[in-house]
Amino acid sequence: MEALLKLDHVTICYNGEPVVQDINLELNKGEILGVVGESGSGKSTIIKAVMGLLGNEGMVTEGDIWYMGRNVVDMSEKELRTLLGPEIAMVFQDSGAALCPIRTVGDQIYESMREHEKISRRECEERTIEMMEKIGLKDGRRVLRSYPFELSGGMNQRVGICISMLQHPSLLLADEPTSALDVIVQKQVVEEMLLLRQEYHTAMIIVTHNIGVVGKMADKVLVLKNGKVMEYGDTRQILDDPQDPYTKELMNSVPRLNRGKLESICTG
């Protein structure tokens, strides 16, 4: 079976300096990969490269990024734009900050949807409200009429997840999706993302400092340090019996809670 996403010996540089080096990973349909490591280890750089969001100073200097057999690295901006949204979507660390503060949530969602398909505002609203209900936003019509600053951090994060999932992408990239939330809302967001995986078979890459989130969500884990892979493999094996000294140090820094329980997400 061909992998949904494959990074093959990928090195990424900013201004000629390597930030991520020789990354190899595979992600199949419906799988969740957790990417962990200290700040500055290159976690977010990996998902930005998949999205083509490295900016003018960043570049994949070696290797290939394959999405369903197509090399993302060689795609033009126009080709890549056809994938972003319908096929590959992203949830940002602070979804509220990623939204325009002077336009309603409904207007922004409609504009985003129209970029990829012909859709009436009414149909867009109906689909959005249905998705919002799936992820715990019960008062969808009020949310659509609201401006981002009128919503709580947890509600804005759910709006971000809703926007990313409206077109049922095959791959969802999430950059610290729970870090700006309190523990109770973290738990809810994790449950909701797992529900979306179950319903739509969405594969995910979750970049996080939170080992509890990884333990609850991920099938596989990639451990990074200074842009290099320390360990990569099955979540339970790496969390319970890490082989690399750095991974052991990372695990030892986590308070000893029962990682099999969702409440352990509070350890991040």
UniProtKB/TrEMBL annotation:
<keyword id="KW-0472">Membrane</keyword>
<dbReference type="InterPro" id="IPR027417">
    <property type="entry name" value="P-loop_NTPase"/>
</dbReference>
<protein>
    <submittedName>
        <fullName>ABC transporter ATP-binding protein</fullName>
    </submittedName>
</protein>
<keyword id="KW-0813">Transport</keyword>
<feature type="domain" description="ABC transporter">
    <location>
        <begin position="5"/>
        <end position="251"/>
    </location>
</feature>
<dbReference type="InterPro" id="IPR003593">
    <property type="entry name" value="AAA+_ATPase"/>
</dbReference>
<dbReference type="InterPro" id="IPR013563">
    <property type="entry name" value="Oligopep_ABC_C"/>
</dbReference>
<dbReference type="InterPro" id="IPR050388">
    <property type="entry name" value="ABC_Ni/Peptide_Import"/>
</dbReference>
<dbReference type="InterPro" id="IPR003439">
    <property type="entry name" value="ABC_transporter-like_ATP-bd"/>
</dbReference>
<keyword id="KW-0067">ATP-binding</keyword>
<keyword id="KW-1003">Cell membrane</keyword>
<dbReference type="Pfam" id="PF00005">
    <property type="entry name" value="ABC_tran"/>
</dbReference>
<dbReference type="Pfam" id="PF08352">
    <property type="entry name" value="oligo_HPY"/>
</dbReference>
<dbReference type="GO" id="GO:0005524">
    <property type="term" value="F:ATP binding"/>
</dbReference>
<keyword id="KW-0547">Nucleotide-binding</keyword>
<comment type="similarity">
    <text>Belongs to the ABC transporter superfamily.</text>
</comment>
